[in-house]
Structure to design on (92 residues):
């Protein structure tokens, strides 16, 4: 991945992390940001890359700065392992 590029898997893990800290479901987050839960699930699983406007809306809904969602490191050891596992499965 290019230097400075946002990793969709890490972004998704970070969104999931902050959403769970707020005890929000995907449906609840979707209501706030105006997107269906299945679409947000694709983002959390790194299958879709959201536009910057949606990142800003999600950050506001989760009460975190957008830069916290865009950080390069996974939010936890478990999330880091999940990202590594997904990467390993991509390159079988």
């Amino acid at each position: 991945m290019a230097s400075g590029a946002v990793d969709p898997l890490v972004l998704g893990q970070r969104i999931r992390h902050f959403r769970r800290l707020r005890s929000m479901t995907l449906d609840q987050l979707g209501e706030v940001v105006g997107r269906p839960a299945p679409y947000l699930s694709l983002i959390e699983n790194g299958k879709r890359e959201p536009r910057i406007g949606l990142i800003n809306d999600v950050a506001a809904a989760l009460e975190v700065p957008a830069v916290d969602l865009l950080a390069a490191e996974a939010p936890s050891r478990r999330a880091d392992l999940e990202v590594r596992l997904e990467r390993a499965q991509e390159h079988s």
